[in-house]
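Write out this protein's structure.
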Amino acid sequence: MAVGISAGILNRFGAELKEWHGAATALQRRIGPDARCFVPQSEGGQVRVGGDGSPILDYEFSLTCGTAFVRAFISMAEMQLQPAQRAFAGTPGRPRLQELERSQEQIALLPLEKFRTMLFTAHLMGGCGMSENPTTGVVNSRGRHHQLSNLSVMDGSTFPTSLGVNPQLTIFGLVAQNATALAQELGGKVLSAP
């Protein structure tokens, strides 16, 4: 697991994070590719500020989430076991295929309930929606905040939802466009590409 991702998920830093990484060498280190819980049919949740100032996201656990977790866990088992299965394809008894089938059976039996799986996103997006209409968005298409004239937001938070892919190039393009427009608006010199 990447150190940056695990620091955010586990809320551990420095020596404590280093110790955890040393002890966690056998843990699953793949990102579940199919764990998409929030779909149009999802019920809304609440976002609050805790007593210590930290954000609290409270969304109900749904069958959609549970099903997504099962798909993600099965995908991770397949990613780990199928390459080994192909390597042993000629051996009698199909030991790796049986291991994969047992894993899939056990995953299907996992209890689907709150707090059994740690959730995170590697590419956090949304939360500061983009719209020309101040009643449906926080910023306009140039990243300018509707209520605070001296605030611009230029990152993935302006997307309405996750793109389903790494958003790096989309963010770069949006930021280049909006930063150039802001520089021109503020009277700065816009440099052309070499």
